[in-house]
Amino acid sequence: MITLNLNPEVESNLRMIARQARTSADELVCRIVNEYVEKQTHTECSDTVIPPITKSLIGVIKSSTFKESDYQNYLWNKYL
After folding, report:
1. What is the dihedral of CA 38, 43, 45, 51, to 10 degrees?
2. Which of these, 31, 35, 36, lies nearest to 17 by C-alpha position?
3. How far apart are the first and last CA of the chain?
């Protein structure tokens, strides 16, 4: 358990935002902190610099209907 001491104005704003999001202030803070820590952990683990062209391609195939077997068939037909 972690205890946070917030400025009263910040706490009031946090509670208002939580109400608008239909969640508790505690849950909202937990989500924010979790996302921040995950992002920081991921960033620190990545010591290699990814070139801009590669960054632009990250995630492109996720939404694709492309299957590995399709690519294997393509290579099979191309080289045999």
Report:
1. 140
2. 31
3. 62
How far apart, in whole angstroms, are the C-alpha atoms of residue 76 and residue 80? 6
In angstroms, the CA 64 to CA 57 distance is 13
Q: Give the global pTM.
A: 0.49
- Confidence bin at 49 (pLDDT 50/70/90): confident
CA–CA separation, 7 vs 36, rounded Å? 20
List alpha helices for 2-80, DSSP H.
Answer: 8-20, 25-45, 52-57, 68-79
Q: Which amino acid is at 15?
A: R
Dihedral class, residue 22 (left if φ above 0, else alpha if ψ from -120 to 50, else beta): left
